[in-house]
Description:
- The complex is a heterodimer.
- By secondary structure, chain A is an alpha+beta fold.
- Chain A has 6 helices and 6 strands.
- In chain A, the strands form 2 sheets. A 3-stranded antiparallel β-sheet of chain A has the order 1-3-2, covered by helices on one side.
- The longest helix of chain A has 22 residues, at 113-134.
- Chain A starts with a strand and ends with a strand.
- By secondary structure, chain B is α/β, with parallel strands linked by helices.
- In chain B, helix 18 packs across helix 19 and helix 21 (627-661) packs antiparallel against helix 22.
- In chain B, the strands form 19 sheets. In chain B, strands 1, 2, 18, 19, 20, 21 and 22 form a 7-stranded antiparallel β-sheet that branches.
- Chains A and B meet through helix 1, helix 3, helix 4, helix 5 and helix 6 of A and helix 12, helix 18, helix 19 and strand 61 of B.
Amino acid sequence: MAIPTPADARRETVRRIVRQTLAERLAELLDTNVEAIGSLGGPPGRAPCLAAPWSRVGLSLSHEPGLSLAAVRLHGPVGIDLFRLGTALPDLERLSRDYLGPATAAMLAAQPDAERQTAFAKAWTTHEARLKCLGLALDEWSPTLARHLARCRTASLTAPENGHWVAALAIAD
Amino acid sequence: MPSVISSPANPSRLLGPIRPELIRRECLADLFEATARRRPDHPALIFGDGVLSYGELDALADRVAGRLIEAGVRPGQIVGLWLPRGLDLLTMQLGIAKTGAAWLPFDAETPPERIAICLEDAHAAGLVVDAAGVDRVADLLAAQGASPPWTAEFLAAPTAIPGPRRPDVTPDQPAYVIYTSGSTGKPKGIRIDQGAICHFLRSENAMLGVGEDDRVYQGFSLAFDMSFEEIWISYLVGATLWLAPRELCADPEALPLALNEQRITVLHAVPTLLALFAREVDSLRLINLGGEACPPALVERWARPGRRIFNTYGPTEATVSASLAELHAGQPVTIGRPLPNYGLLVIDPAVENGLRLLPRGESGELCITGPGVATAYLGRPELSAEKFLVNPWADSPRDARLYRTGDLARIDDDGCVHCLGRTDDQVKIRGFRVELGEIEAALCRRPGVGTAAVLLRHDDGIERLVAYLVAESEPAPTPGALRGALAESLPPYMVPVHLEFLPEMPRLTSGKIDRKALRARPLVFSSGGSGVSDIPETPAETALFAELATLFPGQPIHRAADFFADLGGHSLFAARLASALRAHPAFARFTVRDVYKYRGIGRIAEALAECGAQAPSAEPEWTPPDTRRRWLCGAAQAATIPGLIVLRMAQWLAPFFAYHFFTGDPDDSLALAVAVSVAVFVLATGAEFAIAVAAKWVLLGRLQPGRYPLWGATYFRWWLADRLIEGAPVYMLGGSPLLIWWLRALGAQIGEETIIGSVTMRGHDLVRIGDRVSIGNAVNFENVRVERGQLLVGPITVADTAYVGSYSVLEGNTHLAEGAHLDGQSALSDGTTVPAGRFWLGSPARDGGAFDVSALKPRPAVSRCYRAWENLFFATGCLATAVLFFMPVFPTFILIDWLDDIYPWLQSDRIELQLIKYFVLAFPATAVLIVCTVLLSAGLRWSLHPRLHAGSWPIHSGTYRCRWLVNQIQEASLNVLHGVYATVYAPWWYRLLGAQVGRDAEISTAQGLIPDLLNLGDETFIADAVMLGDEEIDGGWMTMQPTVVSRRSFVGNGAYVPDGTVLPENVLIGVHSRVPDNAVIHSGETWLGSPPVRLPAREQTAGFPENLTFRPSPRRRIGRGAVEAFRIVTPHAAVIAVGYTTVLNIMPLAEAGQWGAVVWTLNVAGLLYGIGAFAFVALLKWVLIGRYDRRAQPMWTPFVWFSEAITNLYEGITVPYFMSYLRGTPLLPLAFRLLGSRVGHGVYLDTTDFTEFDCVHIGDYSELNALSCPQTHLFEDRVMKIDHVRIGRLVSISPRSAVLYSAEVADGARLGPLTLVMKGERIPDRSHWHGIPAAPA
């Protein structure tokens, strides 16, 4: 679910808009009213969650200036991440090796220069979506972490205004 | 008795069960001492390896108490307590308790200034610290005129006579004091009396039910009163406390593992900590959550049958907790109902008009009554009067007073309390309760500051503490200086990020500060004092500030700022910061976790400085061994090489010779010649084993563990023994008791009923394997290796019933304890132990949980008699297969002899002409050899035994012997047919053996496969050295399951495909990877590593037409078939040609009885043959390929066929007859240089596994241990990709590691065992990497 937001809005405002929209859609989806859905609590930086009887519903949000994504999964955890392609990251090689693992780093290094930033964004959002799905904090890559993350299935998303946005979705059983 | 009474007249009032027996006249020390008397020998505390029983702890604390009482400490006094985590801290706490005095605990990270303030405020009698803490507080205490602190070391020192006992303690004397943030500018102290806390412990445990057999985790700081639930409830009942080391407390990965390992049954935790746990803790039967709101999802995740989860609530002012709820999945989370003897009520927060109870269901301020309510705040009469009130609804003296919590709450219809937030003006910053007044007061105390107002502002989505100040005098202090001063007395989260001076404070008519007006002011960052960053003072700060300035251009960097909340950082920024900092060599160990953990810039800088202070992880410099010694050793080695080659040639030259000795004359009996020849073959084979054993004991004796210089005398002796042992045809013994006998003969200690598939051992004397151990196929016991100019020799022990999976690597100094399991394709590096009953996996091997013993069926008993018959079977089987597969040479001989006879003009005395003649004649003859071998093995395969089926059988069973025989036939025939690997003929060969192989499958050197149970789909690709579905043996049982590789799936070099794997279509398994479990793998995925990881994307090789990759034309098929037929035949033709020529030439000498000349000629022939085998392949390589360079070439092109042919010939002739003897000598680098490799001086190579020689670059003095490999090519999507592998100087590569093409290993780096350096990767200089794929070790 893509939710456009004012590009210059405060993060707090963005959070409010997105949570409100999400609560409305959830109410439709769960066939209840917005009040029953509640505030979708959770501090900034933590995934929102629903109270019983919907505590199995997985929710995940990702914000970038101008666009937010929300993912809802009725039975089980979900993670979503959004990336706005802007100025090229100079430290991409180091980042990918440190956090995405040697294999992904090698894959990125093998990309043509023109496509590397986008490929990185794809790999990064996939990685973040998995972390969010499993409720893990960002950490340096390790085989153990990779093993955890391998539990997730992921998909790349085609976000609006293709070319500027890269997003990924992850689910785990 | 009902658990809760709702007073009918006062609906929103709840009372807990009334239990007067829980209120006693006692103090904390009494509780502990009763338990210590009851069970003195039961463990009370466990910390690392240290265990203190109740009795020991009691005695220790008595000493401490004695000294304190001698020093004048009495009941009613307060003693500060400031020590790091550990046994000492708890001993000191108990010691103070035993004096009857109260303690005032400080967290280890409290600034000394705050400690001094609190001590003075509480009129503390003194402070207990450890030796390290003395220096930090001594001056401050002296400045206050306080007495110097007592050290734990002094208090706990042994005494000759028992110290004095405490006088009588009354329940209204203080037990402890805890300070929280206070609104008046000073932190406020809460004093809890002995009666209150003792009652609480009994009251809460009446609900929780912690018992004397529980093992309780102690993780809280003593400054947090939830620590009472951990420590003192345990003391009350006699449970055991396990103290986690500090570094474990916040590690979501390691902590749950450790809890499981320690069999912890009770966990008290804040929900945030539990939510972070990366794994379930099976041993937990009770989880008590408290300290903050509990998210329902956490309950869903952790609830399970047999486990109780509680949520406890309470402010420090009401003694730890006042209410409790048992949580169940799917039910709302509340704070429940009052604990026994406690009461909860909800009042109208507007108390100015008197106290008013609200009707049930309405939200109001939550109040607490009961024996836990504290008397007052220390020295704060006004505040105490506001918060602690007389309870107008009291029923008994027990609930005479009430405490206003300041929390908003509501009581629901079920009588459960819901907490809704805060009523007063406390703010919460990053989870901390902060009174803004305390910060304002701290600012006002600074010289030059008149008025101060602090606000929590939300701007641009960022929460910031902002201070507005009016200067009292000129010059006004700078914001930087103010922040610095505040940071000395306040925790970092309380230091405002932004300070702004105003000419005048906006005020309301009442005279109060107009906070609304302040809030409306825009924040100004760009100019003025506060926009300027703090000045970095340490190297860590300098580096951190510089990196932050790059990440957040234009933003001021302050020590007090929070990375996330103030700077607006998010995960990608945190990742970039950690990576950038790691690029500084001093901070190489910094992790992104530190950013999340510390958040504040100042704290991050401290963490950074700390990790910078640790020894840098760079690999040490080392001096390579001297050149003279190397060449001396090389010369000695060179002198032995011809003999070694002859020994190997003798195995087939002797029967050659025997056969021809008895043929040639018209009346010779062919049958006799064959019989003698076979007898000689058997003797020669036996002699090879015998010579190896004899040579090992004579040359090497018993090898002792330790370090020996490379190229030294011990090295030379080990090398020679290793070469001789390697020369014996051990492949014939695999999976049978004969292998055990062989290893024992070489010095290994192996217990009863142990089974080994196949293994390489490098220091047999140092291997000890217990009884009933199972070791899989192609396991490498690499307990002798070369590292940094030294030969490292270490023991490997495998205890009873342990298991080592196929294709694993163990270095020296490793140990598998009883019942330990090491998964296939795992690496156990030097110094590692797999604990008893654990299952470890991966490279490097890591704990994967307890091994489920129940998964194993009971081991069937087997009689001595049965085993004797089995031994006979295996011995006969070995001999029979060896002899049978020797038989096809006779038709070959007959054919050559016949050709020789019918073309007499071919006869010549010139050796080179003879060689050429026999080489040519050998081609048709070898074809006969190969066809006969194929027919023989197929015949045996289809006549001797029935098909193998999936299932489980004892290792002492007909099915096991049947499996062994199949393997024996495969191994014996592959000795002749190894050339068929990776050819178009390979699929046919495997079909003939019973495997189902689809169209256009490519199979290279697969190992361990069970043909009956193997199914390879169309267009599958099995690369070199893949362990493909070998049988699984554990606990006396063999399991075989079908192994399936579906259409277009690819299994990379050296990968491990466990038995029973079903690979879906179009899957890619990376180099050296372990195939994951069937459940997780899906069609089209890419998996890499051990343990395997799914990769998000795969590099696609496109741009080559299908007719060069998957759909070749018939002409290309014929072309490749022809080249490959040549390459299969050539090695044998060469051997036969040389054999014939040699035998022909020594025959006259033998007939003349000149046996000395025979031996000499054989020696020369051996050497010449070895050199010839090398020269032939070198020549072929230079002529057909020239110089290898970076390229991508589709599979169905002559370049690939020729290149593969050269590799195959190199492996088929050059390695076995020449290069393998040069392993570990200074001559091998020279040989590789002749083949085109760039190998520097003094390089140690214990491997011959090079393919595209020109692409291998190795710097001076580097070391490549056994089975390691610069992998200069890979097949990807049926395209052969070749590139250079660059290994720098002084690099050390451990056994079975591979460096993929386009990668570079810089100078001085070290790679661990079974390590894979990925394509294009660069290993930095002097770093240590390990694992598949390689990661910093």
